[in-house]
Amino acid sequence: MKVLANDGISKSGILALEKGGFEVITTKVAQEQVANFINENNVDVILVRSATKVRKDIIDACPGIKIIGRGGVGMDNIDVDYAKSKGIHVINTPASSSESVAELVFGHLFSGVRFLHDSNRNMPLEGDSNFDGLKKAYANGTELRGKTLGIVGIGRIGQATAKMALGLGMKVIAADSFIPEVDVKVEFFDGQSITTKIVSQSLESLFKEADFITLHVPAQNGYIIGEKEFEILKDGVGIVNCARGGVIDEVALVKALDSGKVAFAGLDVFESEPKPEMAILMHSKISLTPHIGAATGEAQDRIGTELASQIITLLS
After folding, report:
1. How far apart are CA 303 and CA 281, in angstroms?
2. 93 confidence band (pLDDT: 50, 70, 90)
3. Distance separating alpha carbons of residues 238 and 264, to the nearest angstrom
4. DSSP string for 112-152
5. DSSP classification of residue 223
6. Is the Cα dihedral 224, 227, 233, 239 positive or negative?
7. Is residue 182 scored above 90 in pLDDT?
8. Is the dihedral of CA 193, 74, 262, 283 positive or negative?
9. What pLDDT is attached to residue 72?
10. Which residues does the annotation mark as catalytic?
11. Using CA atoms, how far apart are residues 19 and 42, in angstroms rounded to an integer?
12. Which of 28, 55, 149, 171 has a CA-to-CA distance to 229 between 20 and 30 Å?
């Protein structure tokens, strides 16, 4: 059987699949050619990340597909229900990238509270001529310890983020429509651990209480943080979105940053991805990454081997 990993797969995933008797194709096929390639090469399984879309047209055009796999969590680039109605298995790897995404959240938080994103832009330009000026400009940093982190969506990635926040000495609050409460276990290198219960609260109360907000939700029909929500946030709040573009109103975000209502934002995902708006890309108060939340070697290894395991189980 043949597996097309159109958006790539780790070496460990390839080896596991080949050991299971599968042929793995890693040719990058353009979106408009995916259906033809699948049919011409008798592909049984297509694996994607966030780039390739597997919609109704491809599903209808490729009756030989047995499995559609998403290397990651969100599956908004796949018509999941329609695929299942056609008897196709749809799989993903919800646990594999949690730690990597959570670490990126804190990369953006540390960047924001210590102005790293802006100082890294300006030090190469002015570091030799305006060192004291830059030192003064970036002198009013903030510690994360003792502050309140509001996590919107306390699923796997939200919980991984909560563990890191607790380790830093932050207060953690959460809002989640589907998870009323959760026990979060923070494990240490020597085998010791602590467990704390996080009880979900209303979004409005979280917005009013949090010093920093991080979003861990799937794609939405509307904004979770729009113009009205920005009004009730604490003054000087920091916001990070490593979830999905479109959950924050970026026009309202820029206004809030310009007014000082929001101190900084960290964005890994964007409304108009893969062509983010220039007002976002050029803003001095936004820390930017190009949708790389799960892009660590460790996460990609886990994703590859987890996908391989599921495929082998389903088709063996």
Report:
1. 30
2. very high
3. 5
4. HHTTHHHHHHHHHHHTTT-HHHHHHHT------TTPEEEEE
5. -
6. positive
7. yes
8. positive
9. 87
10. 244, 273, 291
11. 20
12. 171
